[in-house]
From TrEMBL:
Cofactor binding description: Magnesium. Can also use manganese.
Listed GO CC annotations: plasma membrane
Primary gene name: apbE
Catalytic activity: L-threonyl-[protein] + FAD = FMN-L-threonyl-[protein] + AMP + H(+)
Subcellular location: Cell inner membrane
A Gene Ontology molecular function term of the record: transferase activity
Lineage: Bacteria, Pseudomonadati, Pseudomonadota, Gammaproteobacteria, Enterobacterales
Positions of Mg(2+) binding: T178, D292, T296
A Pfam family matched in the record: ApbE
Residue spans crossing the bilayer: none
This protein's name: FAD:protein FMN transferase
Length: 341
């Protein structure tokens, strides 16, 4: 991941300033690093002696997830699969199968714009573990990378004995980066439930999920950021009501190449970084995984198609579009019930 970027603001948690655990009069905040970004767990009802143990459990679980499906770690299970040159089904974890299932489902509904096989293009444009290109990739380079992104080359097999991933082209490269934070967020929520914690807000990078109450018996609130370089400028506030939320934005993670702004979100139909004026897509869904998949998908397809898809799929969506020097927003009917003042 190029920069740590926070497109969502957890209200009342903005005072975070170091990686130590600390208590506030509004509960306990734990935080640390994972997947090239920061995790935060905000809990209301935890006993003091349990805190260090919980922090250890959280970090271990996130490290295991990272070692499973990171493409940045050469030793992760996913990196092994990507390097594997054969076509035999390879065993994968239940977590990875869950991400792939959801990614393929959203991929189908978007006609392939959300595409976890986009890895060769992501790497070509310098957003994977490889270095940024020194020049704009040419047509041939784009065409060869694009030829590896057809979802038909990947198969997920699941039965009572386990789950496997199979490829029929050796050089395909699966990239689960876009849904990893959402998955890890849901996974943290499950850990909280297992620990008997009922009032919590968990977040990994740009994905957040909360349950129960925050301080003073109030519901948790999360804010969508304005799409500017200024941190913590609030665009809108929501109450999640137990749902997951995720924002994808093209305004934080980019670099300049040959005078152009290169975004980390790739349009698989052109093989090039997106180049339209939808700058931020926020989705609220039952799970953070689902929200994290849809936000990227909507960002890829641009404002008008994103609106149509949100209406067709009854998604809770908040879009921010750049119009000249100004920004306009669009809110789907499902999103409106989450908005608060
Ligand atoms: P954001 O940084 O806006 O939160 P994510 O981190 O969720 O977005 O996802 C960005 C990553 O997703 C990229 O760095 C790349 O690895 C991957 N990616 C880029 N384009 C696509 C796409 N069309 N479909 C699936 N994954 C993509
Ligand atoms: Mg996403």
């Amino acid at each position: 991941m190029r920069f740590q970027k926070f497109l969502l603001i957890i209200l009342a948690v903005q005072m975070l300033n170091s990686c130590n655990n600390h208590d506030t009069n509004q509960g306990t905040i734990l935080h640390g690093k994972t997947m090239g970004t920061i995790w935060t767990v905000h809990i209301m009802d935890i006993k003091n002696h349990h805190k260090d143990e919980l922090r250890r459990l959280i970090q271990e679980q996130l490290d295991r997830d990272d070692n499973d499906f990171s493409t940045w770690k050469t030793n992760s299970a996913l990196s092994h699969f990507n390097r594997y040159q054969g076509s035999d089904p390879q065993p994968i974890s239940i977590g990875m199968a869950d991400i792939v299932t959801e990614a393929l489902r959203i991929g189908m509904k978007t006609g392939g714009y959300m595409n976890i096989m986009v890895g060769p293009l992501v790497n070509l444009w310098g957003f994977g573990p490889m270095q940024e290109p020194l020049h704009t990739p040419n047509e041939n380079e784009i065409a060869s990378a694009k030829a590896l992104t057809n979802l038909e080359h990947l198969r997920l097999i699941q039965d009572i004995n386990g789950q496997w991933l199979q490829k029929d082209l050796p050089s395909i490269y699966v990239d689960l980066s876009t849904m990893g934070e959402g998955y890890a967020t849901d996974h943290l929520a499950r850990l909280m439930e297992e620990q008997g914690i009922t009032n919590y807000l968990v977040s990994v990078g740009g994905a957040v999920l909360c349950r129960g109450k925050s301080s003073y018996d109030k519901p948790w609130k999360v804010a969508i950021q304005k799409p500017t370089d200024r941190e913590n400028a609030v665009e809108a506030r929501v109450e999640l009501k137990g749902h997951g939320i995720s924002t994808a934005g093209s305004y934080r993670n980019y670099y300049e190449l040959d005078g152009k702004r290169i975004s980390h979100i790739i349009d698989p139909s052109t093989g090039r970084p997106i180049n339209h004026n939808l700058v931020s897509a926020t989705v609220i869904a039952t799970t953070a995984l689902e929200a994290d998949g849809w936000d990227t998908a909507l960002l890829v397809i641009g404002t008008e198609r994103a609106k149509m898809l949100a209406l067709k799929e009854h998604l809770a969506v908040y879009l921010i579009t750049k119009e000249g020097k100004n920004f306009t927003h669009w809110i789907s009917p499902q999103f409106k019930s989450f908005l608060v003042g």
